[in-house]
Each structure stands twice: as structure tokens, then as C-alpha cells.
Amino acid sequence: MKFLVVGGAGYIGSHMVKHLIAAGHEVVVADLVAPAPGVQWAKLDIADEAALDVLFGVCRFDAVFHFASFIQVGESVSAPGKYYQNNVAATLSLLQAMVNAGIKHLVFSSSAAVYGNPLYIPIDEAHAKGPINPYGLSKWMVEQILEDFDRAYGLKSVCLRYFNAAGADPEGQLGERHEPETHLIPLILQAAAGRREAVTVFGRDYDTPDGTCIRDYIHVADLATAHALAVDYLLAGGERTAFNLGNGHGFSVQQVIDIARAVTGRQIHVLDAPRRAGDPPRLVADAGKALSVLSWRPEFVSLEQIVRHAWHWELQYPWTTRQG
Questions:
Q1: What is the distance between the alpha carbons of residues 324 and 173, in angstroms, rounded to a whole number?
Q2: Active-site residue among 11, 83, 115, 135?
Q3: Strand 214-219 with 164-166, pairing
């Protein structure tokens, strides 16, 4: 098959590119940032529909993977226009160009943020949608747009709602580099490596066993596997749908810190701070639909494995600075 990976130079996108190439597929990355050496690269912004028309006129793709979204929740609150422009308007340009070219299959990187504050745990796909920030709302808007494009043009899509992507390539070639970094595990490991003075714990008075928030972490390599299964599902005639991606087991902030201390053998300085507004006590996925429909079987389910792979990547800093 021949696939376009939009945002294929980023954290999750680069792991997807590696997975697809290893499976024998031809891959082109559409991104403003260069992907891994040797990967075909179309340097473009998906907001540029004319550039997409040219690309689709030259290359015939069986499907598109879309990872090119801004992801910082706090920034989305302070700069909502940036998020609606990139995450929604630019995606609309991509979808219209796909329709123009007759490309009928899309795997979209969505988010558990579409659910907002959970009404029950674990969260399944039927849970009410109530995004509480522009980032989550931008993802939910795209999901609704995809429903309309299916109805109008027959564009079939799978929306994959991640909980907390984490870890790094088990072979150590790829990993997570965000500037600024906002994800818990790399923040903790930066503190362990001495690149950050401390990691901050926001709230120790939640209704959880140790008082800190509980989240569901899923290994980035298992996310790539799920995306590959999702495109297989679409190419086999599957209908538009959405799947949660998580391991179904929550870990508290304190548990992550404790495991990171054990894996790294380092002291990790912790600062306590008040709760952040909008942080629910628990966010855990019910990924039963992906397990059943896609026959997805996550390989790296222990938090220790996730942290160990991320630590191996962190130790390569500063020689390896790519996001993906």
C-alpha cells in the first residue's frame, strides 16, 4: 500500500512511519519539519489546499493518517484561534483535497479530551462528549466534520481517541521531544536526568488511593499498531467509527514518579502545588471495542516498560533532539 502520513515528523507520527515501512508499505510524510532520514517528504502545510492538490495529483494514496494537530491544552485556552485554525480549518483543507483526489480512507488522531470531565470510569466510546477546552473541542469538531464527509462524499474514517501516549521506540531510534514539554513522563525523566530541577505534582487531595490524579498510559508503539489495524479495517470495507486507545489500567502521578525512580536509579525532586482547574481525579479508558473489532493487543502494557523505553531515549539527549 501507499500511505500519506500527515505530521509524520512528530512524536506519534514518526513511530507510525517506522511501523508502516517495516511492514513493507510505501510512505510519504507531509510536514513542515523533516522526517527521519530516507523517508519520502512532501514539505507542505495541510492548510495549503493547492499544494495538497498537486501532491495528490502526483501520488495516488490508499489512505491518509492525520497526526498534524496542536496538542497543548493550556495554550488552546489562551490562543484558541491558533487551535481552531490548525486543528479544524487546516484539517478541512486536507479533507477537501482528499475528496478532490478521490481518496476515501482516513485514520484520524483524536483524543480522550472529547469526553471532558468523565461521568463514569472506565470511559467507553458511548460516553457523552463534553470537551472543556478548545483543544478537545477542536478534536470533537473534526470528528463531526468527518461524519458529514462520510455522508456527503463516502469518505470513511476511523477516529482514534488516545488517552496518554507515552514511551519511546523500543529500539531507541525515536522518542518524545516537545518544546515546551507538558507530558508527565518526560517531565519526570528530565528531572531524573538533571535537565529540570524538579517535577511538580498538582494536587495531593484527590479521591484516589494516594491522593494524586490517576491516568491511563499507552505505549506509543502500541498506538502505531492500532493505527495500522485501523487502516486495515477501513480498506476491508469498514464503516466510519471511533475507538478508545488505552491500556485500561490507571496509574497515579505518584506511582509514575516511584516507578521512574526505580527504573532510573536517580533521585527525583518533587514540588507540590495546588490542583489545576479542570483536572479530574481519574481518566481511564475502556478499550474493549478496539480489542474486539480490531483485534488489537497492546504489547507494552506495564508502566515500567513504558518508562524504561522513555528513559533510554532521554539518555540520548542532547545528541538526538528530533521530536519523533
A1: 9
A2: 135
A3: parallel
Four-CA torsion 88, 89, 93, 95, nearest 10 degrees:
20
Q: Write the DSSP symbol of residue 114.
A: G
In the chain, which residue ranges form alpha helices assigned H by DSSP? 11-22, 49-58, 73-78, 80-83, 90-101, 134-153, 184-193, 220-235, 253-264, 288-293, 303-314
The tens digit of pLDDT for each residue in 130-189 reads: 999 999 999 999 999 999 999 999 999 999 999 999 999 999 999 998 888 889 999 999
User: With contact defined as beta carbons under 8 Å apart, do 233 and 293 qualify?
Assistant: yes
Residues in the chain: 324
d(CA 142, CA 108) in angstroms, rounded, equals 9
C-beta separation of 36 from 18 below 8 A: yes
162: annotated active-site residue:
no
d(CA 299, CA 313): 19
Which pTM does this prediction carry?
0.94
Q: Which residues pair with 41 in a beta bridge?
A: 29
Instruction: State the residue for C-alpha cell 522518542.
Output: 175
Cell of 273: 502545588
Cis peptide bond N-terminal to 318, omega within 30: yes
Burial of 250 (0-12, 13-18, 19+ CB in 10 A): buried
Q: Which amino acid is at 43?
A: K
Grid coordinates 533521585 are at which residue?
267
